[in-house]
UniProtKB/TrEMBL annotation:
The keyword Transport does not apply. It comes from Streptomyces lunalinharesii. InterPro entries: AAA+_ATPase, ABC_transporter-like_ATP-bd, ABC_transporter-like_CS, P-loop_NTPase. Residues 1-25, 278-348 are annotated as: Disordered. Coiled coil: none annotated. The keyword ATP-binding applies. Keywords: ATP-binding, Nucleotide-binding. This is ATP-binding cassette domain-containing protein. One of its GO terms (molecular function) is ATP binding.
Length: 348
């Protein structure tokens, strides 16, 4: 039952990903087939993912409340939001791990409610929960996924080796996963998801709990594979800096709804223009004013409007603007201690 404010939630278009197919990658052959298909996907103009009116309730709790999304082939799309926003539930509906009780989800045109196996074959999924077995080697873990995802037997060994190479784990491949660092485990889970050559890779908080170097390494691997294959990536994250740096477009989700959608630059620029307008300052040349609900009056402790209008907003400022008041109280902010500890514990 969505009653989104159209001025704030209407999807805004932005430049899609420029897919670089020249990246030299050890695991390039992981998705050689995908490369062909991705070019066809892009040429056809079909969306990699479409959600329309997606809704999901856990009993009385409306976790996803009328989500509309269109992710283009080849782009890195970020689903951002605080704990409890509904990101994981939406992702689980898209991956067919949960049903689609209301609304529609399509992955490269396949209906997630009616063509579950076809959708699953198109997807790679790295969940928040640990998906690697600590008692197996890295290679054995990836081989297990190759079997589960029906990689043809005669191709398996090569595909496993390519997936491990793609995430820079060749040297450590025959060590037990329990000897891996948190960053290595994340990269191993990425290899598990890549071994089936997915056309849409879904990553739920891929870097939470990792140190900055490990975070960068995970993103570099994702980007290398994407550059080599044209794979589409849908990622959830709490880290606004990562979204800014790595996502072509983002959707800001709060209380089950998409509150804003666009490139990070567009969303920041929209907020800057709204602030400038509210403060009576002429917008910079080229600024696109977009319809939005009036900003609330500043509280006595708020920065003055003129100082706000002068500051360059961050993506987190945009989120606070579209989510309204009470974000911290309702959601625990962007680095919710509970979730961070839970997930950090699993990779630490
Ligand atoms: N299995 C469940 N049973 C009941 N309620 C649930 C269940 N899973 C999620 N919820 C509720 O649904 C809402 C959305 O949760 P969801 O996990 O999708 O949010 P999220 O944005 O992914 O949060 P996080 O960043 O913590 O993973 C929350 O109110 C949550 O408490």
């Amino acid at each position: 039952m969505s009653s989104e404010d159209p001025g704030r939630s209407a999807p805004r278009t932005g430049p899609g990903a420029a897919v670089d197919s020249t990246g030299a990658l050890p695991g390039r052959a992981v998705a050689a087939d995908t490369e062909q298909v991705s070019a066809a996907d892009r040429a056809s103009g079909a969306d990699a993912l479409t959600c329309h009116g997606l809704r999901y309730d856990f009993g009385e709790t409306r976790a996803v409340d009328g989500v509309d999304l269109a992710v283009r082939p080849g782009e890195v799309f970020g689903l951002l939001g605080p704990n409890g926003a509904g990101k994981t539930t939406a992702i689980r509906c898209i991956t067919t791990l949960l049903p689609v009780p209301v609304g529609m989800v399509r992955v490269f045109g396949r209906d997630a409610a009616r063509e579950r196996m076809a959708v699953r074959r198109l997807l790679g999924y790295v969940p928040q929960q640990l998906s690697a077995d600590s008692g197996l080697t890295g290679r054995e873990n990836v081989a297990l996924f190759a079997r589960v995802f029906d990689v043809p037997r005669r191709e398996r060994a090569a595909r496993v080796a390519q997936a491990l190479a793609a995430v820079n784990l060749t040297v450590a491949a025959d060590r037990l996963a329990k000897t891996y660092s948190g960053g290595m485990i994340r990269r191993l889970e990425l290899a598990q998801a890549l071994v089936s050559a997915p056309r849409l890779l879904m990553l739920d908080e891929p870097t939470i709990g990792l140190d900055p170097i490990a975070r960068t390494s995970v993103w570099e691997r994702i980007n290398e594979v994407r550059a080599a294959t044209g794979m589409t990536v849908l990622v959830t994250t709490h880290y606004m800096d990562e979204a800014e740096q790595y996502c072509d477009r983002v959707a800001l989700m709060h209380q089950g709804r998409i509150r804003a959608l666009g490139t990070p630059g567009e969303l920041r620029e929209d907020l800057r223009a709204r602030r400038a307008r509210t403060a009576g300052t002429p917008a910079a040349p080229g600024t696109a004013f977009t319809p939005a609900s009036p900003s609330p009056s500043p509280s006595p402790s708020s920065p003055s409007l003129s100082s706000l209008s002068a500051a360059e907003p961050t993506l987190e400022d945009v989120f606070r603007d579209v989510a309204g008041t009470g974000l911290d109280e309702q959601s625990g902010g962007f680095r919710d201690v509970r979730s961070t500890r839970r997930t950090a514990a699993r990779v630490g």
